[in-house]
Amino acid sequence: YNGVCEVCHTAGNKHVQNPVENKLVKQKERQFCGLCHKKDPAKPNIIKQINLDEHNPGMWCLICHDAHKPELK
What we know:
By secondary structure, the chain is an alpha+beta fold. The protein contains 3 helices and 2 strands; from the N terminus they run H-H-H-E-E. It has helices at residues 6-9, 12-17, 30-37; strands spanning 65-66, 69-72. The chain has a two-stranded antiparallel ribbon. The mean pLDDT is 84.
């Protein structure tokens, strides 16, 4: 375990220690994905950035994208 899971799932270390009592948070909200992926010219373009107002507005990102393999499903 290296803490990367906590970026999206929070409290991953607690889950690793006791997965029955500490479930991972599964983020679904579009705005959550936008924290990293919302188009912002001030951010380096290392992570794919999108315009949340134009890219499938009103839909959850996970309908078309798997968070662990973000290419289209």
